[in-house]
Design brief:
3 copies of one chain form a homotrimer.
Chain A: H1 2-25, H2 37-54, H3 56-59, H4 69-91, H5 97-132, H6 139-145, H7 147-163, H8 169-181, E1 184-185, E2 190-191, E3 196-198, E4 204-205, E5 210-211, E6 216-218, E7 222-224, E8 244-245, E9 250-251, E10 256-258, E11 263-264, E12 269-270, E13 275-276, E14 284-288, E15 292-296
Parallel strand pairs in A: 1-4, 2-5, 3-6, 4-7, 5-8, 6-9, 7-10, 8-11, 9-12, 10-13, 12-14
Helix pairs in contact in A: 2-4, 2-8, 4-5, 5-7, 7-8
Chain lengths: 297, 297, 297
């Protein structure tokens, strides 16, 4: 026990000084944004609050009586306005604090004014899910137990902030949903209403994707970049890197569709495990005739 | 700051009224089931309690002294009976409240009487895991750190309620485990004891699958439907849509096996990334001779 | 209600006795390690504390003032030393309690002395991420919102304990990160600095993998074993079963690379969905020319 005490009294401080020096002088990270674990926890709660406003029967703790609904919603929106604009202000970098406060408030007010539109899109998403999955017994089952609702609602909220050029917070939102659902939708993607992702684990949708109406994806589908680098090996920041998926397309499990010039035409069906890096004309079925071989065990 | 206050005083109420109207008159969702966030939280706790009864050394908070074990178990079962039957009652739709109470209690009592049988099956699952994974150093390591234990235990509990035709709650249970493990087992699947899923992220097992004894799956395996639609484009509700896997089959990473008529015969091995939509005779090795091409970088 | 009370009074105790007997006499699990749910919760908190020491701006609850930083770090390290060594002692199996205490303390002190080295490696990892992902707007965004930071930091901590032959706890750590990120890195793998995993869901890295400097993986990549069994069907415990990846290799989404003799040479690029079970010479591009077929829908 003496050795332990000696080590704690002598070594811990030395190691702490090394780490402190490294944080202060070295290649440090994460001092610009004032957005620690507590702030992220609050952003997560505000996302839950937005879901409760959109689907009170499912995302509130308790059932809200009908005649109290409008007050519940207004209270929730007021809390979201005040708290979310504070977090947004903390990630803005204008030198004038007043400008940051102004821009943060404008962003939150745009987001809140969009909520009825976002709800309308989500109802289209839920309808596509019900029509697309024979295992769904009711619309309510979808809202209560399908991971795509969490992922797509979070995406539609985060996308609104992304368009307003709010840094980091849209990505914090999308990663929270990625962690819970396995579905990784970059807030920059542009996705029309009527979108369904079944099961969803492993789905990746890149920053510059465009997805039309009534599109269905299954688990493991990647809509990604062909290569993140240009010919000189530098990252292709800002370029269109990810595919476009037109209306009424279905893409089965683990298909990989890559490239900023790739367009999957209206009404096409992409089979499972397909690897597509070129455009597909409308109304085409693409399938993967991968030869399997057999022998006796 | 005035603009902010003005907006909050004027716009929030208007937006709240729009959302309220939409909830009351439009295509609303999720008013039938009285199963909000708090109820789902309690269902999750009850699942944990069942795991604690099945594996007290691992899923209890603290070690239970041996001579208190039977009291701990009885207390836990009593709590599960009372609370779970309340939640089940809330999702039943018989017009007579008394019938709902009766049916809910019967469902919980059947589930609790099945727990020793479920534990026996899980011990077979753990044995298969130990024999199937060279990285496992002990049985305890598997129960303490393998995600398949969470996924398969949850499945075996949810399946019991699914067979009793309890709506939504089995799916809420399976999605909780899907969120934590990346393994999506529909409660309707029929899975014999001795089942092991290694790593597991991305595994999808459909509602009408049947899986025999001592089957091993790796990450990313899909046992799914060929298409969710019939020839007229309507969802195939109720039909047998997913494959059967016979005893002693091994299916390697990211293989996709589809279709309600597909049977993988006893003792077969399906190689990684294989795409199988037809039956495979017993004792067959299936592998994917996908040609890779190489060039100098 | 009488039926319910009768059943509770008569059946619950009987079922409890069956489960108790099964736990005491049957093929039980999980009595050796004293590491229940509460202990695992504390191990998770200690992991968070280590992340807070490594990246205080991101993983602390609140911003730490610069002149308090060294005290914050020292306090955190002291708490980690005391609590983690207690949990490690509980999983050690030497008959002498004193030896267990000694070994546990030595393990924690080695881990804490390694933290500056671990931080240096993580900074290389973050740099590779920034250079490898055009969607990353800043280094801070990566630390705040990329799942690979959680996965790789946890791996570097767990690997240090694995090398010191601490049972179970490294796997409990890696599974926690697997659950949150979908990235499953076995603590036994040997991974050089400058490692980046983009998106990450479904990535599996086996126990005996070796990975060089500046390697990039995408979602769904498996670095696994060809088969877990030897020719007699016994698990290959202890053998080298997983591939080696040399410096500056990029492996795209859903590629599967298997086998203990497989070496992917320096600077090679493995295309998405490729299936590789043999060594690849340095500087090679491997791609999967999987034929897709098309027909009109």
């Amino acid at each position: 026990m003496d050795a332990i005490n000696n080590w704690m009294n002598n070594s811990l401080y030395k190691i702490s000084k090394i780490l402190e020096k490294d944080l202060k002088t070295g290649y440090h990270v994460n001092s610009d944004f004032n957005i620690g674990l507590a702030s992220r926890g609050e952003i997560y709660s505000l996302l839950d609050k937005m879901l409760a406003v959109l689907f009170p029967g499912c995302y509130c703790n308790e059932k809200i009586p009908e005649d109290e609904m409008v007050f519940f919603i207004e209270d929730a929106l007021r809390e979201i306005t005040l708290k979310l604009s504070k977090h947004i202000r903390d990630v803005l970098s204008d030198e004038s604090e007043e400008n940051n406060i102004q821009k943060a408030f404008e962003a939150v007010s745009v987001l809140i004014e969009q909520l009825p539109e976002i709800r309308k899109a989500l109802l289209e998403d839920i309808k596509t899910a019900y029509n697309g999955d024979p295992a769904a017994k009711s619309l309510d089952e979808i809202v209560l137990s399908y991971p795509c609702i969490d992922a797509i609602a979070t995406y539609r909220i985060a996308h609104t902030l992304y368009k307003l050029e709010i840094p980091v917070i849209p990505r914090i939102m999308s990663e929270r949903s990625h962690s819970r659902t396995g579905i990784d939708i970059h807030p920059g993607a542009q996705i029309q209403p009527g979108f369904f992702i079944d099961h969803g684990t492993g789905v990746v949708i890149g920053e510059t994707c465009k997805i039309g109406k009534n599109v269905i994806l299954y688990q493991g589908v990647t809509l990604g970049a062909l290569s993140p680098f240009d010919k000189k090996g530098n990252p292709l920041r800002g370029a269109k890197r990810h595919p476009d998926i037109e209306d009424n397309v279905i893409i089965y499990a683990n298909a990989t569709i890559l490239g900023g010039n790739t367009i999957i035409g209206k009404g096409s069906i992409i089979g499972g495990n397909c690897w597509v890096t070129e455009s597909i004309p409308p109304g085409t079925i693409v399938y993967n005739k991968n030869e399997i071989k057999m022998k006796n065990n």
